[in-house]
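Readers of this paper often ask what the protein records in our data store actually look like. Nothing more is needed to write down the fold, since each code stands for a local backbone conformation. Below, we set out a record of this kind in full and without editing:
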Amino acid sequence: MIAEEQKKYTRLGKRIKRLGIHKLLFEGASAREAANFMRGMGWRDIARLCEERGF
């Protein structure tokens, strides 16, 4: 998640971290599940998940 945020032309920015933390704290996922939850997803899918959760 950190590597994605530090890319020069990222489309997700800090939202990718926020989604992982939301998954961990509010949805009750384990740390491993939260860290690997978005692995292999496209940025549009991740952005849609963020919008569904209000950020």
